[in-house]
Every structure is written in structure tokens, then in C-alpha cells.
């Protein structure tokens, strides 16, 4: 299906165009990709899908962009894309070829280029996400815990700030300074893929798109951790975090395509290889630069970041043989440490959820009641569901069902509503 092809190839299409025309023409590149997709929808049903569909899309997008530039600047010559480049376009870069030079990966180059220091870090993340994922503004706004209008203004200001800047793919010593925004972008990108899983109307196409986001975020995080200019404990910790969560994707949906909450997932469906790989990255993240092969020896302890703590929490879930044997006190301790590094709304919510599971539902409920009036709207259904769990642990089924009803009323996606409704039915039946 065209939707599946675009989900997998769009970042590479956009990256090729941005590398060709420059990040200053990002909006043009986005429009060119859209035009190519519309052309495919018109031609392919009548003429059949070409053998090299990705190369076809790239040629159409490239030619449309050149036409726009010629119309704007008729005296400037623009060469057509070499045929051999479009023929090779559909093939993914091999592991041995990747990073042969500085950022020898178009998607990673686009990501680092979008995280330009001329704009604030939050705007770097927003611009990079918009470039890499093409997710709708309302979806991105939820992911970034802001409003759609606020995100649109942030993107507009970022593009204005970059309008007069000479934008090139950063190299060498320019890369480390952009790593913080790059890693933050990949975390949000992966999280949005996880949230999108199970929410699409077309299950097959929806899962392809959701998993494409997750796998690409994992690939790029591991690439950042492997590159000699960007390798760090923080990058390894993010790679560990994404791998440990990604291992659960295979058990996240039931046969009907509905979301299965973590406690109900069949753990033998989790990807054991990804868990081992995630744990290896987590171990590597705790070494010194010299031990990772990325810098000179040092006597200082490696820097602890929020990615280290989040990966440690994910490891506790991944290693627990059953939900009942999850070591919740260690997870609570992890969140206490995380809140010192990042006291934002999401970690505060996670801390309260962990407290309820660790046997402190009254304390969790007090924290959630204080959190709710000021927490972002995108997290409100999660907070209400957490309050329901705390009431359930306290033996107050009526209040638990009331909170679940509130959560169902304000949740945005039908798949999430079905998951909460199933939980409510189970809770009601247990009370009879």
C-alpha cells in the first residue's frame, strides 16, 4: 500500500531533498514530498506501482521542487537528480557503509541540521520532529505537551530565525553541541510511535506507520551512540531505553488489534534479543568515555542523566518474570532520582503511578490530586486512570469506576477508550 511505503520512506525522501536544496528550503521539500504522494495516488492505480517506487517518488519530488525554484529564480540553473541516485534510493544504507564519514546517513544528517543553535532547544526538537515524522500538528502538540496553536507559532518562529542562516549539515566539532536536542527528539519520536500503535483506523497501515517511527528512532539512537563524534553515556542510555520499550511492541496488541496494558501482556511475546541489546547499551552507558572507546581516560564517574534513570526503570519491567514480581520499590526510587533531574509533569505522574503499585496508594492519590489541576491536558486521561488504580488499591471501587469514567470521557483516541472500558468492566465484575 502507498500509505505503508510513505510511512517507511518519507524521512529518507525528505532527507535527500533537504541535503540537495538545504535546510532553508525545508518547507519546499515537505511540499515536494506531498506532491509526489498525490501524483502517485493519481497514477499508480491506473498504471501500476513502479518497481522502484521510492525512486519514482524521489524523481517526482525532485523535479517539482526544481520547477518551483526555477519559477522563483529563473536565472539559476538546477541540475536534475542523477538516475543512479534514484535507482539506489530504495536500498537502505548498510551497517558497514553507515558513518564512513561525518554523518553518512541522510536521516541523521537532517536531524542534526534541524537542531540548529540559532533557535531555542524546544524549537529545535519541534522542527526536527516535524521534519522527520510529518505527524499532524495536533499529534505533535500532544507529544510535546503544548497546544496546536502554540506549536504552530514555535515552528513559525524557528523558520523565521533560520531564514537568514546559512544552513549546512554540521560536521566534526559542531555535532556534540546538538546532541541534547537530537536525543530529546528521538525520545519523543519513539514515544509517539508507541502511542500511535493500535490507534489507527486501518490496523495494518497504522501499525506499519507506528512501528516505522519506533524502529527509526531506535536505529538513529544507536547510530548516535556509535558515531565517534557523538558517542556518550547519554546516547547509550537513550538507545537502551528505546530498545527495552521497543521489545514490548510485539506484545502490545491482542488478536483484535486492541491495546493490552503492560500487566496483561504475555511476556513470552516480548523480543528477548532486543532486551539483551538494551541491557548491553545500558551497561555501556555506565562506563567512562575511555571504556566506551569514545574519549580519553578519566577518573570521574560517568554523568548520570534522565535517560540513564528511565532506562533503569525500563530494565526493571523488562527483567520482571511476572507483573506481580516487578520490584516496585526500586522503580519508586528511580522516579525519586528522576525528579531531581527532571521535575516535569510526566515524571511526576510516573512517580505517583509507581507509588500506588508499591503499596502506597494513599500517598499516590494525594500526589495525583495535587497534580491534576496543573497537569497538561494530554496527560489528563493517564492521571485519571492512575487515580482509579489508587482508589482500587484502597478498596474504593465506586471511586475507581468514577475516575475511569472521567478518563474515558476525555481520552482522544477510541483505542485508548476501549482499553479503559475493558478495565472498567473487569473492575465492575470483580465487585459484584
Total DSSP helices: 20
Measured as a percent range, the helix fraction is 55-70%
Largest sheet: none
Span between N and C termini? Answer: 47 Å
Helix and strand composition category: mainly alpha
In angstroms, what is the radius of gyration?
Answer: 23 Å
The strand count comes to: 0
Topology record:
Layout: H1 2-21, H2 26-47, H3 53-72, H4 83-87, H5 106-114, H6 121-133, H7 137-143, H8 148-163, H9 179-196, H10 203-226, H11 233-246, H12 272-285, H13 289-292, H14 306-319, H15 328-341, H16 345-357, H17 361-371, H18 380-393, H19 397-410, H20 414-431
What does this structure look like?
- The protein has helices spanning 2-21, 26-47, 53-72, 83-87, 106-114, 121-133, 137-143, 148-163, 179-196, 203-226, 233-246, 272-285, 289-292, 306-319, 328-341, 345-357, 361-371, 380-393, 397-410, 414-431.
- By secondary structure, the chain is mainly alpha-helical.
- Among the domains are: 1-91; 348-432, Serine Threonine Protein Phosphatase 5, Tetratricopeptide repeat (Alpha Horseshoe).
- The longest helix is centred in the middle third of the chain and has 24 residues, at 203-226.
- The radius of gyration is 23 Å and the shape is globular.
- The protein starts with a helix and ends with a helix.
- Residues 12-73 form the RNA polymerase sigma-70 region domain.
- Residues 178-285 form the DUF6596 domain.
- It comes from Ideonella azotifigens.
Amino acid at each position: 500500500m502507498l500509505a505503508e511505503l510513505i510511512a517507511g520512506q518519507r524521512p529518507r525522501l525528505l532527507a535527500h531533498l533537504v541535503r540537495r536544496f538545504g535546510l532553508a528550503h525545508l518547507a519546499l521539500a515537505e511540499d515536494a514530498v506531498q506532491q509526489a504522494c498525490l501524483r502517485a495516488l493519481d497514477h499508480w492505480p491506473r498504471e501500476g506501482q513502479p518497481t522502484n517506487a521510492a525512486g519514482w517518488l524521489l524523481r517526482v519530488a525532485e523535479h517539482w521542487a526544481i520547477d518551483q525554484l526555477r519559477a522563483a529564480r529563473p536565472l539559476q540553473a538546477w541540475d536534475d537528480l542523477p538516475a543512479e541516485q534514484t535507482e539506489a534510493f530504495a536500498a537502505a544504507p548498510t551497517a558497514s557503509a553507515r558513518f564512513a564519514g561525518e554523518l553518512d546517513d541522510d536521516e541523521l544528517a537532517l536531524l542534526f541540521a534541524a537542531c540548529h543553535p540559532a533557535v531555542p532547544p524546544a524549537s529545535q526538537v519541534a522542527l526536527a520532529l516535524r521534519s522527520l515524522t510529518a505527524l499532524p500538528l495536533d499529534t505533535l502538540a500532544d507529544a510535546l505537551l503544548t497546544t496546536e496553536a502554540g506549536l504552530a507559532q514555535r515552528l513559525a518562529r524557528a523558520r523565521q530565525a533560520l531564514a537568514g542562516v546559512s544552513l549546512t549539515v554540521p560536521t566534526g566539532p559542531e555535532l556534540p553541541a546538538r546532541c541534547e536536542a537530537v536525543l530529546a527528539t528521538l525520545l519523543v519520536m519513539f514515544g509517539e510511535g508507541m502511542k500511535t500503535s493500535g490507534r489507527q483506523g486501518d490496523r495494518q497501515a497504522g501499525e506499519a506507520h507506528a512501528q516505522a517511527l519506533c524502529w527509526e528512532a531506535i536505529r538513529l539512537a544507536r547510530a548516535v551512540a556509535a558515531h565517534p563524534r557523538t558517542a556518550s553515556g547519554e546516547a547509550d542510555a537513550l538507545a537502551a531505553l528505546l530498545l527495552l520499550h521497543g521489545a514490548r511492541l510485539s506484545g502490545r496488541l491482542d488478536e483484535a488489534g486492541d491495546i493490552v496494558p503492560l500487566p496483561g501482556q504475555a511476556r513470552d511475546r516480548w523480543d528477548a534479543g532486543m532486551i539483551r541489546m538494551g541491557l548491553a547499551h545500558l551497561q555501556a552507558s555506565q562506563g567512562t568515555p575511555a571504556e566506551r572507546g569514545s574519549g580519553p581516560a578519566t577518573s570521574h564517574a560517568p554523568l548520570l542523566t534522565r535517560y540513564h534513570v528511565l532506562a533503569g526503570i525500563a530494565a526493571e519491567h523488562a527483567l520482571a518474570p511476572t507483573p506481580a514480581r516487578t520490584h516496585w520499590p526500586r522503580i519508586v526510587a528511580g522516579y525519586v532520582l528522576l525528579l531531581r533531574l527532571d521535575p516535569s509533569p510526566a515524571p511526576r505522574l510516573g512517580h505517583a503511578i509507581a507509588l500506588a503499585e508499591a503499596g502506597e496508594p494513599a500517598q499516590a492519590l494525594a500526589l495525583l490530586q495535587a497534580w491534576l489541576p496543573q497537569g497538561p491536558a494530554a496527560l489528563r486521561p493517564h492521571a485519571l486512570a492512575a487515580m482509579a488504580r489508587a482508589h482500587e488499591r484502597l478498596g474504593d471501587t465506586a471511586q475507581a469506576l468514577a475516575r475511569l469514567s472521567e478518563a474515558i470521557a476525555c481520552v482522544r483516541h477510541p483505542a485508548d477508550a476501549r482499553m479503559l472500558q475493558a478495565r472498567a468492566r473487569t473492575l465492575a465484575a470483580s465487585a459484584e
